[in-house]
Amino acid sequence: MSPSARADAVRSRERILEVARGRDAAQLRLNEIARDAGVGVGTVYRHFPNVRALVEALSVESLRRLSEAAEAAAQEPDPLVALRRFLDDALALQLADSGLQAVLVDLEASDPAVHSECTAARAQIHQGFGAVLARAQATGAVRADLSAAQLQRLVCGVEHAVRLGSPADRPLLLEVLIAGIRT
């Protein structure tokens, strides 16, 4: 592939992502994205063989930010404050990125060959999530029988509740979640 063809491919991919960004992940249609991006349908499918691959590509930045939130939580001396901050950051990112929940939770739908960067980032986040939770559990502040996967699903439930209600519900619902996982 010539340098100019590679540059065209990079521009096409960025244009596709730009058009798809901000749309509800559940409503993404590759044919519509191609039309709105001004590229051929084949070009979209070359970059993103299915909607899931596009959703994962759109979520890479959110995954990076969530990973940074886990690292910041690990630096917080108080384990319960760290967990609360991390859950709040995770909730905020999931509310801002409509595809992030599926990327984090629906592991079976992901094809590592399609988007290895996303798969690696997700693994790092799950490890960070588990470490933050384990630290809070070790101090006795949080239920010992709660797994990181269960807690992630609870965050998804709060995200869904906020989407059904109002953004103003977020602080209250997060506090209810925290109260429910305390010992």
Automatic annotation (TrEMBL):
Key words, A-Z: DNA-binding, Transcription, Transcription regulation
UniProt-listed Pfam families: TetR_C_43 (PF21597), TetR_N (PF00440)
Matching InterPro entries: Homeodomain-like_sf, HTH-type_TetR-like_transc_reg, HTH_TetR, Tet_transcr_reg_TetR-rel_C_sf, TetR_SbtR-like_C
Keyword DNA-binding: yes
Coiled-coil intervals: none
Residues of the DNA-binding region: 29-48
Record flagged with keyword Cell membrane: no
Gene3D superfamilies according to UniProt: Tetracycline Repressor, domain 2
Domain HTH tetR-type positions: 4-66
Name recorded for this polypeptide: TetR/AcrR family transcriptional regulator
Organism: Spongisporangium articulatum
